[in-house]
Structures are given as structure tokens and as C-alpha cells.
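Per reviewer request, we include the raw input and output of the structure prediction for the construct analysed in the revised manuscript.
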Amino acid sequence: MKNLLTYLFLITVFISTESVARENPDLSGKLYFSNQPFSSSNAGNKNSFSSKEFIYGRVELNGTTIKEAFKLKDGVEHPYLQCSIFLFRGEKEIDRQTSMNYFLLKEEEKSSSSLNFDIMSEAEKSTTVYSMMDDFSLGLGFNILPGMIINKELRSDKYTVRIRVYSKTLDAWGKEQPEEKWPFIEDEFVYNFNEDDAGMVIENNKRITSVTRENAFRYDKLPPVFSNPAKLTDPNASAAKITAILKRDLPERIILKWVVEKVSGLQWHIDKDELGLPRYKYFNPEVYVAYKMNGKCYVGSVTLRQPYAGGGTYGPLQVGYTTAGEQHDKGIDCAKVK
């Protein structure tokens, strides 16, 4: 994930192209492509790329905002658009990705008439947060185009890549409307792939995933649970025991601070298998942990449990699940862990 890449800058050609394919009377604008990140309007447009280049997109709308044009709803914790990619060799479509293609919108982007987004960025310049899930709980960093290139094991050839940015709209009753009613903007470019560049694409894609998971969501301060934790009264989950277990089971972390969340009801529950036999007893409250690892600070949570030892008894306390298991915990400036 840490390899250096050779970044070949080519001269961008200022050619604007109207959106193509099916009619979209509700959304007027253009989709631009460049081998460098866009910083302002008219930053350039390319319609052909080599596999040594990185690719960035920009939506520019006419007389409306991203929120209005794509009919985005208020009150969504993680607002997003979707990006479908269609891959052609000649006239034949050889692959498409039309699901698990969500990318996060910042609040300020919703009120703008333009939007910059990554298509296949240089990892260290990645700014777009892609996810497989619309709540961004899974598959952070799933970057669509390099994933398609890798999964299809493309051969050296000239391909056409069609990019469609859209949103799935709802009717007055909250039901998803048919696809022909979804607002979208799309265009395409030529992609000249050379198999000699496959290694670069693979390594860069790994770093994109790592960078995205690292930086997608960060805390500005410790979450509220740290200022209003539960009081520990159970000797099986005392402060001394939890401290020792965290240190033993998470040796790669330097634990800076931990608290147990407040919950109502029983503190211990028994998990059983399909035959109704106990597997383990787990501590119902989650333990929230602020920690340092590899010089950086994070906040996540873990669960605690006691494995079933037979005869109605349970073994010693241990860490069961950790939120860092599937992806990075949220980062935080170490100075803000107080």
C-alpha cells in the first residue's frame, strides 16, 4: 500500500461535451473528465486516457444546485449520490457496476451547482468516499473503476468507459420511483489500457482503500459517551478487569481512555447455538476506546464476553468483537483525547 507511483501528467484538452445517451429533461448540465483533480470550473476536459493516468470527474449544472437537480432529501445522516460505470470494448458492453456504488456528499456540495469526484484517483489525492452501503457502514474505499479493471483482468486494448452520476428518487409515498424518473448526468471517455500498468492500478487501488478508510470519518472531539459513561458495579466486569483485558487482547493499541456505555436492562446475555446450547455470555454494554496505534489516534468500540466452559460455567473475560475488524475506526487528533 505504500509504493510510490510515477504520475504522468498529460496536457488537458479543453473540449466540453454534452451529456449523452437517454434523454434527461429534468437535469441540464455537463460532465467533465481530467487527469488532474479539478479545482474550479473550466479546469479542462479530456475524452481519452491512458492506463498510466489518474481520472477525475466534475459535474457542472445549469442554474440549479446538486440538491435540487438530484432531488435529495433532507435529514439524511450521510447524503450521497450514486455512480454507475459501464465498460465497453468496441460496441460490446463487457461489464457494468450499478450497485454498491454510493459516494458521500458534503453539506456544502449539496448547495453548489458543481461537484468534483474521483473516478480513479491517485491514492494520496483521494477525496471521494465510496461505499458498498448507503449508510457507509461497510465497504468504505470500494473504488469502482479500478475494481472493474482488476476483476475483469483487462487485456491491452482500447475501451470506452461510460460514467453515470444519479440518484434514486422517491414518490410522494416514499417508494422508489422507476429508473426512467431518476435524475442523472452521464458521459464517456476512451480508456487505453496497457497490461504493463496492471501492477500500478492494483497497488494504487489498495492504497485508495486504505486512505479512504483512514480519513472518511473523523471525530472533532470525543463522542458524548465519554462524558457520560456507565458506572461499573459488576465484579465480573470491573474497571481493573476491563483495563487488563483491553491491554492483553489488543496489544497493538496504546489505550488512552475507555468508558462503558449506559444501557437499560440486563448487563449480561447468553448467546446460544442452533441447538439451544450456550456458546458464550456477553456483556451487553459496549466499551468505547480511544487509543493510539502506529502514531495515530482512533476511537472505536469493543464487546466483551466469557466463553462457555461447560457445566453451566463460563471462562475468563475476553474481547469479542472490535469495530476495527472490518475497517478503520474513526480517527481523532491525539491532542483531543482528554
